[in-house]
Amino acid sequence: MSHKSLRTMFTFMVKARVLLGRMKAGRGQRAALADVACWASTVVGLEDGDVALGCREDGVLEGMRGVSVVAIAGGVERLYAGIGAALGLKKGRVVMVFVERHEAGGRGWDEALRVAAELPIIIVVLPRWKGVETDADLCKEARLAGVPGIPVDGQDAKALYRVAQESLGRARADGGCALIETVMLPDASDAIAGLAEYLLARKVANKAWVDGVEKKFVALLGQRIG
Question: Where do the TM regions start and end (predicted)?
């Protein structure tokens, strides 16, 4: 993993935290704050011509990455929209579909996975937060439908990046769909703080750079608002 990719992921995560911090405080905001590693580590691999379909309408993904993200209600509906988009893509382009845990599985999900199996689609299932999500084994269901299912710690930005890059590379080479299921471990730590510590320990960045990322983005937002 290059130093540039690590710094870019950290920047995306900080941007997402700043944007979410401007939202009205509530349960949804707290849940989303814990998803920033899942977003940043996966969208960092998107390129011009790729398509992203999200489950949020607050502009956080767009503001973090600078790519257009279309928000569509309903997990199965979003996946079918991704299938339609994938059928019209040029060779080497991919579709990334974000799905909240409670939206995955259930009626119509397995059939949608079978349809998506040979298409260049990366499905990113966000962690369990609300306590009401399906208990389905999504990775097992994916594999039964012919789609590789890969569970990853949703707070480990580096592991998420590696899995996403492998899945994107496979999809771009006509290898078909993959499902990345991000999971929340009982002893989960803050993903942004953890990545900052890694950057400093490996001398990927110095403390002035780490501390300055948020300050620069907040200043930029202030200029745009002004």
Answer: none
For 163-170, the CB contacts below 8 A with 24+ separation are 164/41, 164/42, 164/44, 164/45, 164/122, 164/124, 165/45, 167/122, 168/45, 168/94, 168/122
Domains of the chain, each with CATH number or no CATH: 3-225 (3.40.50.970)
Instruction: Supply the pTM of this predicted model.
Output: 0.89
